Amino acid sequence: MMLQKFVDALPIPPILTPKWKNQFYTYYQVNMTEFKQSLHSELNETTVWGYEGSYPGPTIEVGSGEITFIKWINNLPDKHLLPIDFTVHGAHRDVPEVRTVVHVHGACVEWESDGYPEAWFTKEFKQVGPYFRKQVYRYDNCNHACTLWYHDHTLGITRLNVYAGLAGFYLIRDDRERILNLPSGKYEIPIMLQDKTFNKDGSLYYPKQPEKPIRELETSIVPEFIGDTILVNGKVYPYLKVEPRKYRFRLLNASNTRFFRIKLDSGQLLFQIGTDGGFMQHPVGVKEIMLAPAERADVIIDFSNLEGKNIIMVNDAPAPFPTGTPTDENTGTVMQFRVTLPLSSVDTSVIPAHMRPFPKINGHLASKIRYLTLNDNMDKFGREFMLLDNKQWDAPITENPILGSTEIWYLINLTTDTHPIHLHLIDFQILDRRDFDVETYNKEKKIKYTSTAIPPEPQERGWKDTVRANPNQVTRIMMKFGPFTGLYVWHCHILEHEDYEMMRPYIVIR
Ligand code: C2O
Ligand code: CU
Q1: Measuring from each residue's beta carbon to the nearest atom of ligand 1, which residues come in under 6 Å?
Q2: Considering only Cβ atoms within 10 Å of each terminal Cβ, which end of the chain, N or C, has fewer?
């Protein structure tokens, strides 16, 4: 469907107010419901799912170290909004259709509050998954200032729950951030990038079958979902009126499968100041920013001296990435900035020269090296699906780092897609990527490198929780496990992959 661009203003999700707050802790309640919302002024209202009646959900803002309790409440209908495939793990007919569990992506959190995929719950907690432990989650927020986000994580239906609208921003602030004098208040704006496809009546379209339908099944999971329309903060191709000054944007790719490679059509630089895990050491001026699903970039854009100009944010990442269809006039357009507001006061904010030290983890400290493949597989219906280390979700746990230990993981990608690999609990550093010969690996299980090590891109030189593992490359990451022990997960953040076996439990042990 062709929807006119730049006719609706960019919505900015409200900041959630706590139910209680005292000097010791903060308590929020977040209700999940179904409602109708206008996603474009020429489109009928769309039935979506959201948190606190809002899609995207309200932004949760907490301080670093602030002990925060959140009761996530499922008040959704009993019937799912989107087509369920009952053959994928966790979504068999023996569980209720509508289940939810919330994960704060990038959070440093005890495992019982991490939103384990089998810790799901239904309305009034009437039914719960086998790993459900508590109704009120506790977040210690032991991160520095950073851009996190919360979203659904239910085993087997994450792609549908998130596509229906269950996602929002979770920002952590700290004193360091306060003294940096960044653009703030109305000059600091979250940008959630997503793609969707609409039916004529304005309802959300999600495919019931892959391109080559599976005859034995009424509904089958698809290997990827590629929408034909781009939304920002839940609006189709919105515009934002800005003053001729600096703005800070928290970019987040919250799509199911689509990658974004963002550019401004004015050719101007984006000044990136933060990665997934918070501030980088120094800002980097870049012409384009690559964001796989779940990746974030904290950027400053300077509109000074651009009075009267319209600037379009564009995208040129093929979907699926990297070998899929190139973008067109629709999927290649994201949103528009209109430099039409008068400067309301002198812009005294800065792009700091230095944000925070980025201490490199010492590789010699690594007590364990793990070689982990990303593979293709075929199911009994002839459908292709992806695995981590050739193991399904239900296979015994194999990644069991010791609390406080440092490990290096080699992500050996044997598939033809780039997979955004995400680990819960910790932030890691990307060491490098290196080309290797897949055929030799398949035959002899040996890595034969065909290039030298390629250092991470300038925009990746900071704390990360999601890394793009490219085809024909070994991607190496290094991390220290802690401060909690317990059961977490690591997975591909392409939601159609995650929902169909490209996810593994891992456990931090004492
Ligand atoms: Cu963004 Cu395991 O999640
Ligand atoms: Cu994947």
Answers
A1: 103, 105, 151, 153, 294, 422, 424, 489, 491, 493
A2: C
